[in-house]
Amino acid sequence: MHSRSYIQDHKLSYQQSLANQLVTAVIILNEKLSIVYVNPAAEALLNKSLYRLFNTESEMIFANTSINRSRLIQLLATGQEFTDCDIVVELNESHRFTAEVTASSVEFERTPHVLLEFKQIDQQKQISLEVFQHQQWLAARDLIKGLAHEIKNPLGGLRGAAQLLSKEVTSEQQEYTSMIIEQADRLTNLVDRLLGPNQLPQMQAQNVHGILEKVCQLVGYSNGQKIHLLRDYDPSLPAVECDQEKLQQAVLNIVNNAIQAIDEKHNITLRTRIASNRTIHGKRIKLAIEISIIDNGPGIPTKIQDTLFYPMVSGRSNGTGLGLSISQTLINQHQGKLSCHSRPGHTEFTILLPLKQQPLNRAPLSQESTL
Ligand SMILES: Nc1ncnc2c1ncn2[C@@H]1O[C@H](COP(=O)(O)OP(=O)(O)OP(=O)(O)O)[C@@H](O)[C@H]1O
Ligand SMILES: [Mg+2]
């Protein structure tokens, strides 16, 4: 027969090695919600050792997520465990992951602790989700296009008839015919935007910084001193095959949205980087140019985040909800990808443009990198 303390020690050593072997990342927080233990899987996930993480507050991991202090305190008090899906943990600019997190209460040395288990939403799942969302977007766009087409056909006839009629009626009655013409023009304009870009892109090797500078110039003319535009360019970016006007329009729509969402206290940053090993609609891309449009405004309303790129989805009372859908179409025409990540204080739209060949020579572009 083994003694009770022998079994207890034995059990502890099994538990310790079990935690070390788990593929699930596990973090334990004490009553003050500071980290007291992370297993090796969590060290790998957070890219830091237990030594560096010890005593770090939980907020460092869960900033801007639904797992806030008050919920964890409630968990300690009631023991009521919870699971939250799609928690985006953002440790720094380049280290972000999505996970399902289960929080439960465990007792160590007679005091309640929080046990956090992370199930990382793996890349494959993320890619399938992206592909699914892209297909949904294509279906919604085709439906709207079909409808827009049906509306457009009779509109021309309606306008023509009103024009003819205006020649037959008195000048007082012409007020009515011009109203028909005016409204028909307004509808045609809307329908044309619904139909989206209808010309094939004219691809040419372009300096993306030149295109971004043009956008800055355009928004500068229409908004004057009001906006703070910052540049964070990688001057060594190679030229990319793109249609200058289309790319400019795509970026302009995104920048205009940011301008509409922010005020003088906020700013917009245009960032360029070279990106490697990314997936675009399920396809692996070796090298791409990444253009990010970042603002520190209020963020995208949560209720439209999942359908943001669908046509006619708007969070503004006077918005038509077409800007981002058009940008999406334009970027897709470049075999690229437009994505967004937003929370209050940080909204980031990212355009990925694949580079056809690996540049042999990353000669600096003539454009100035910063202002
Ligand atoms: N940077 C941002 N910050 C906050 N909200 C944003 C931002 N960008 C987009 N949005 C939200 O996304 C919505 C959709 O944008 P989109 O450009 O597609 O349509 P819109 O701006 O409403 O109308 P349109 O561009 O057709 O005039 C916006 O209405 C706004 O609520
Ligand atoms: Mg817009």
Automatic annotation (TrEMBL):
<feature type="domain" description="Histidine kinase">
    <location>
        <begin position="146"/>
        <end position="357"/>
    </location>
</feature>
<dbReference type="GO" id="GO:0000155">
    <property type="term" value="F:phosphorelay sensor kinase activity"/>
</dbReference>
<dbReference type="InterPro" id="IPR000014">
    <property type="entry name" value="PAS"/>
</dbReference>
<dbReference type="Pfam" id="PF00512">
    <property type="entry name" value="HisKA"/>
</dbReference>
<keyword id="KW-0535">Nitrogen fixation</keyword>
<dbReference type="GO" id="GO:0016787">
    <property type="term" value="F:hydrolase activity"/>
</dbReference>
<keyword id="KW-0547">Nucleotide-binding</keyword>
<keyword id="KW-0067">ATP-binding</keyword>
<keyword id="KW-0378">Hydrolase</keyword>
<dbReference type="InterPro" id="IPR005467">
    <property type="entry name" value="His_kinase_dom"/>
</dbReference>
<dbReference type="GO" id="GO:0006355">
    <property type="term" value="P:regulation of DNA-templated transcription"/>
</dbReference>
<keyword id="KW-0902">Two-component regulatory system</keyword>
<keyword id="KW-0597">Phosphoprotein</keyword>
<dbReference type="Pfam" id="PF02518">
    <property type="entry name" value="HATPase_c"/>
</dbReference>
<comment type="function">
    <text>Member of the two-component regulatory system NtrB/NtrC, which controls expression of the nitrogen-regulated (ntr) genes in response to nitrogen limitation. Under conditions of nitrogen limitation, NtrB autophosphorylates and transfers the phosphoryl group to NtrC. In the presence of nitrogen, acts as a phosphatase that dephosphorylates and inactivates NtrC.</text>
</comment>
<dbReference type="InterPro" id="IPR013767">
    <property type="entry name" value="PAS_fold"/>
</dbReference>
<protein>
    <recommendedName>
        <fullName>Sensory histidine kinase/phosphatase NtrB</fullName>
        <ecNumber>2.7.13.3</ecNumber>
    </recommendedName>
</protein>
<dbReference type="InterPro" id="IPR004358">
    <property type="entry name" value="Sig_transdc_His_kin-like_C"/>
</dbReference>
<dbReference type="InterPro" id="IPR003661">
    <property type="entry name" value="HisK_dim/P_dom"/>
</dbReference>
<dbReference type="InterPro" id="IPR036890">
    <property type="entry name" value="HATPase_C_sf"/>
</dbReference>
<dbReference type="GO" id="GO:0005524">
    <property type="term" value="F:ATP binding"/>
</dbReference>
<keyword id="KW-0418">Kinase</keyword>
<dbReference type="InterPro" id="IPR003594">
    <property type="entry name" value="HATPase_dom"/>
</dbReference>
<dbReference type="InterPro" id="IPR035965">
    <property type="entry name" value="PAS-like_dom_sf"/>
</dbReference>
<keyword id="KW-0808">Transferase</keyword>
<dbReference type="Pfam" id="PF00989">
    <property type="entry name" value="PAS"/>
</dbReference>
<dbReference type="InterPro" id="IPR036097">
    <property type="entry name" value="HisK_dim/P_sf"/>
</dbReference>
